[in-house]
Design a protein that fits this description.
Layout: H1 23-29, H2 32-54, H3 59-73, H4 80-92, H5 105-118, H6 121-145, H7 156-223, H8 228-256, H9 260-273, H10 277-285, E1 291-296, H11 303-323, E2 330-336, E3 340-347, H12 362-373, E4 377-382, E5 388-395
Length: 402
């Protein structure tokens, strides 16, 4: 995708599809380490205040365990399962924990939520199992050393709520990531299509026009001494062709600096601005190519069809100019029927050794691609007895596939 200034736009990210928040909250969301600091404060400050006010036995161990919880939470995004194990173990061993009561549920809630929101469902279930099993182990240790016991049954509803909330958040994030990936894929496809279309236009403008200009310059040079009037006419035609190709190249270069909507408009406008087929034939006649043109029943209001027809005829005549061996006639026949238009370009060049290729080989494939894009067919090949024929059949707009 291109921006209005012609620069490549950055790919969409999942956050682009997140709901809008109040500006300060949006800033906090875009700085996850700020959230981590707030989480650490929310988990450790109440425990520190409780240890100071209640002053339970072994308060010094409570401060050490609280510090361990705060340090572990710093890595909760990168190692959620490990952090869960450490936090739950430290919280379960805190002196603030009394039989049947645990004031440190917020730490357990956060680490279970973190695992469920960042890791697959299997990891979330393992985290849930650890958050239930570790307190049992801690209760056994506390009872063994004689400082009480823990009843973990009160923790389970909170853990289930954390698990379900984390799974919901992860599912929502995956939806946004999938949507962003889909949009980026479509943008890449549109950009590739844009490049293909521009490449085809550049091939039509540059390759064909330069071929004609070279032929005109060669004819003018050959006729300069014996037929100066013909040389003058060829040079005038050469100037006209050069002026035309310069204008078309400026249009395409302008399209390259514009957005995709400008591209569509410019390419659509090109159907209006193309010369007529008779003018095209005159250009090739000026090079010495014996072109005859006959049109029957060609629709004049279908700009897409006119553009495709012009480019196909232009490519075919360019190939004839390059490769035909002294043809007596290059016949262009365009015949319209009820639902199709047939474009036939034939030359009767004498048989001889194969000519060296002067082009890139993209011309024939470009004609075939144009015909296929419009739902038509294209065939090209040598004729019996010498020469070459290209035949393209294009459907009218009303019968074209959508």
């Amino acid at each position: 995708m291109r921006s209005t200034e012609g620069r490549e736009a950055a790919p969409f990210e999942a956050d682009a599809f997140a709901p809008s928040l109040w500006a300060p909250l949006e800033w906090v969301r875009r700085h996850p380490r700020i959230i981590d600091i707030l989480v650490i404060l929310a988990c450790t400050a109440p425990a520190c205040i409780g240890l100071v006010l209640i002053q339970p036995p072994y308060a010094w161990a409570g401060f050490a365990l609280t510090a361990a919880i705060g340090i572990a939470l710093w890595w909760r995004r990168t190692h959620p399962l490990l952090v869960l194990s450490v936090v739950v173990a430290c919280a379960s061993m805190s002196p603030l924990v009394q039989p049947g009561f645990s004031p440190l549920l917020i730490e357990t809630f956060i680490v279970v939520y973190t695992v469920a929101s960042l890791r697959p469902l299997t990891h979330a279930l393992i985290g849930l199992g650890l958050s239930i099993g570790i307190p049992f182990v801690a209760a056994a240790i506390r009872q063994w050393i004689g400082i009480g016991e823990l009843s973990p049954t009160l923790v389970q509803p909170v853990l289930l709520a954390a698990l379900f909330l984390g799974i919901a958040v992860r599912s929502r994030r995956q939806q946004r990531e999938t949507l962003a990936a889909l949009v980026n894929t479509r943008i890449e496809a549109a950009a590739a299509n844009e490049r293909s279309r521009i490449t085809a236009e550049m091939h039509d403008v540059v390759a064909h026009s330069v071929t004609v200009m070279i032929a005109l310059a060669g004819g003018a040079r050959a006729a300069w001494q014996k037929h100066p009037e013909r040389a003058t006419a060829a040079l005038e035609q050469l100037g006209n062709v050069g002026e035309t190709v310069l204008g078309e190249m400026q249009t395409i270069l302008h399209v390259l600096r514009s957005g995709d909507s400008d591209l569509d408009k410019a390419l659509h406008r090109s159907g209006h601005n193309l010369p007529t087929l008779e003018e095209l034939a005159d250009t090739f006649r000026a090079t010495g190519l014996p072109v005859t043109l006959r049109q029957t029943g060609f629709p004049s209001d279908d700009l897409t069809l006119k553009n495709a027809t012009y480019r196909i005829v232009q490519e075919s005549l360019t190939n004839a100019l390059r490769y035909a061996d002294r043809p007596a006639e290059v016949a262009v026949r365009i015949t319209g029927y009820s639902d199709t238009v047939t474009i036939t370009v034939t030359d009767d060049g004498h048989p001889g050794p194969p000519a060296q290729s002067l082009g890139s080989g993209a011309g024939l494939s470009a004609m075939a691609e144009r015909a296929t894009a419009l739902g038509g067919t294209h065939d090209a090949g040598p004729r019996i007895g010498g020469g070459w024929e290209t035949r393209t059949v294009l459907p009218l707009t009303k019968s074209r596939p959508r």
